[in-house]
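Thread: quick sanity check before group meeting

JM: Hey all, I'm pulling together slides for Thursday and realized we never actually wrote out the predicted structure for the chain we discussed last week. Dropping the sequence here so it's in one place. If anyone has concerns about the input, flag it before I start.
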Amino acid sequence: MPKTATEVQKKEDGIESEISGNGIERNDRLTEVPRDILSFILSFVSFRDAIKSRILSRRWKSICPFMLKNLDFNPHSVLGIDKRRWLSNRVSSEDLCKFVRGVDQFVELYKHEKNSILPEAFRIHVLSLRLKTLILHDCYCLQKIEIYSASLTTFEYTGQSKRLSFLHVPLLEKVHIKFLVGYKNHTRYMFNALAKDLPQLQILSVVLTKNELPVPRRITTFSYLKQLELFVLASPDYNLLSLTSLINAAPLLQKFNLSLHNWRSEDTGSEEQYSEHAHLQLKEVEVHGFCGTSNQMELAIYLLNNAVSLDRMTLTTQRRSYRGDRKWTSTSFYWIEWENKKEHAYDLLLKQRVNSRTNLVFL
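JM (edit): ok, ran it. Output follows.
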């Protein structure tokens, strides 16, 4: 028997109905609730309960969970873990990984606007000896970060927190910092308080923009720093000799990596002269984004003149960026003007070596 237009429309809308024994059609009023109202109702229940409610009606199954307006991701809603168990720290590392993966997968699938609300202060106090690496990326709205972890060895931070506080991190040796928003106390902290908070630091990686530049002349000494990685975003003619203040503040520095990235800025840095300083331990220097500009040549000459134990200096046009979690990206760069003068620049720098055994490499 052919269906009426009303029956077809009901089927398309997903409205369920059934025919009673006396032939009278009986509608399920619950399924006739408009989609917007249904989504509004579901927004008041937990994500877990909202998913369960979809079994009440075939039509409800078509209500995409992404329409929910308020999502509370917690161990109970995602994994069904009892709150008391969570607060008593009786959650396994495997469950923690499942929780993180579950939230990440949902956020990745969600194609609409996302609003994430984080607390103003992030505090991590870990007594366990298992936490070795802590990575915080793009954590907006955080005003303060406190870390207490006796086992932490590696810390990476990308964000706009106004204050970093290392309360107890006796084994922390490797740090990467990139501030997304410039504050005056960022500069003060990076070049003064950081060395005091982390006297045992051995590897430091920082991103310097116009907000952190120029580097102050006086910097607290990094007594045990062995490797320094700088990612500098500045104008092409910026006075790179100001970076030597950081090198001077690390008497045990063995490896210096510099990645240069052009950034539109009217600030070209200070024109003042920088005094010579012997670097007794520096063995290896790498400069990425090198194309033979006068300020780059000045820095290379300074290092060749003062690094008395330098084994190798590598200068490459390839630009390198750090993406976090030990992941790098490189971009090839070709400049015809540099290719034409590369041989002359090589001969000039070769004559500046204070250590005749220094291997000079152009890539």
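AS: nice. The radius of gyration is 30 Å. The chain has a mean pLDDT of 75.
JM: adding both to the slides.
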